[in-house]
């Protein structure tokens, strides 16, 4: 569960090739960070994996099965957005329950998963509040809770902390890393922040203009950047 393979995946919007064909292998349980400057195609690549955009070419395999044409719901992946996308009129409990309701999960199983997610995310005392009555960090936790209860094969995060202030961002970074240690589920995490990439990733994918410049562990990239772009971006001494 949670192994994702991209084979020659490409994306064009009209005349513009935003992502030239690329290959990438993500192992089960890995914490992979896509990092690169604004506009380099990080969100597009994540949306292709999620099935929110159609590829212009190539294949996407999830756990060895061709998922290139599968709907987002069929892929078994859960996306966490920077804008939270919570329902303002629903309680935290109902927000977290929503994807399970859609999937027809039995009520007692829904309750079990909500309690477990709330406990893991320190939301137990907030289940009856509405999103408007929560802090930014708590709202972000609810968005993650809504992803957890789907028991996805992988979590896809698109700059989830960019709306938070600097101090809160450090705390949430630790919480997401801790969640990964606990769940051991594949996570793909998009950021333009090099520090986030270097501190959170098992594997970093450095992107520039839709191309993969280098894939490696934080230490690989630090000690052996393949080119000047990677060295400059990662802040390596070379
Ligand atoms: P990042 O997330 O790294 O900032 P994006 O994936 O959002 O980058 O965008 C990559 C490039 O694709 C940008 O040049 C952007 O303008 C373009 N792009 C993204 N979505 C669309 C779209 N729906 N239509 C046309 N161009 C798009
Ligand atoms: Mg983006």
3D shape: globular
How far is the first residue's CA from the last residue's CA? 38 Å
Please state the average pLDDT score.
Answer: 93
Percent in helix:
25-40%
Class computed from helices, strands and strand pairing: alpha/beta
The hetero molecules present are: adenosine-5'-diphosphate, magnesium ion
Strand order of the largest sheet: 6-7-8-3-9-10
The string of secondary-structure elements, in order, is: EEEHEEHEHHHEHEHEEHH
Number of strands: 10
What share of residues are in beta strands? 25-35%
Low-confidence stretches: none
Biggest sheet layout: 6 strands, mixed
Describe this structure in words.
It is an enzyme of class 3 (hydrolase). GO terms for molecular function: ABC-type maltose transporter activity; ATP binding; ATP hydrolysis activity. With 238 residues, the chain is α/β, with parallel strands linked by helices. It has nine helices and ten strands. The protein has helices spanning 42-50, 72-75, 92-103, 107-120, 136-148, 166-183, 194-200, 218-223, 228-234; strands at 4-13, 16-26, 31-35, 57-62, 65-66, 77-80, 154-158, 186-191, 203-208, 211-216. α3 (92-103) packs across α4 (107-120), α3 (92-103) runs parallel beside α5 (136-148) and α4 (107-120) packs across α5 (136-148). The longest helix has 18 residues, at 166-183. The protein starts with a strand and ends with a helix. Residues 42-43 line the site of magnesium ion. Residues 42-43 line the site of magnesium ion (MG).
């Amino acid at each position: 569960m949670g192994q994702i393979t991209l084979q020659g995946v490409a994306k064009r919007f009209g005349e513009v090739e935003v992502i030239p064909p690329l290959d990438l292998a993500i192992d089960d349980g890995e914490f992979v960070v896509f990092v690169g400057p604004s506009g380099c195609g990080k969100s597009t690549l994540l949306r292709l994996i999620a099935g929110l955009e159609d590829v212009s070419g190539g294949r996407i395999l999830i756990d060895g099965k061709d998922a290139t044409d599968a709907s987002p719901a069929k892929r078994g992946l859960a996306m966490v957005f920077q804008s939270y996308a919570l329902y303002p009129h629903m309680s935290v409990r109902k927000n977290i329950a929503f994807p399970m309701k859609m999937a027809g999960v039995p009520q007692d199983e829904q309750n079990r998963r909500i309690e477990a997610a709330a406990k893991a995310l320190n939301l137990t005392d907030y289940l009856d509040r509405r999103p408007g009555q929560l802090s930014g960090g708590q709202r972000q936790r609810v968005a993650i809770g809504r992803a957890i209860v789907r028991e996805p094969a992988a979590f896809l995060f698109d700059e989830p902390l960019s709306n938070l202030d600097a101090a809160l961002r450090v705390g949430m970074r630790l919480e997401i890393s801790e969640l990964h240690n606990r769940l051991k589920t594949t996570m793909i995490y998009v950021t333009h922040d090099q520090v986030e990439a270097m501190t959170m990733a098992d594997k970093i994918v450095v992107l520039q203009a839709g191309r993969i410049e280098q894939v490696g562990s934080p230490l690989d990239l630090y000690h052996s950047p393949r080119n000047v772009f990677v060295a400059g971006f990662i802040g390596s001494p070379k």
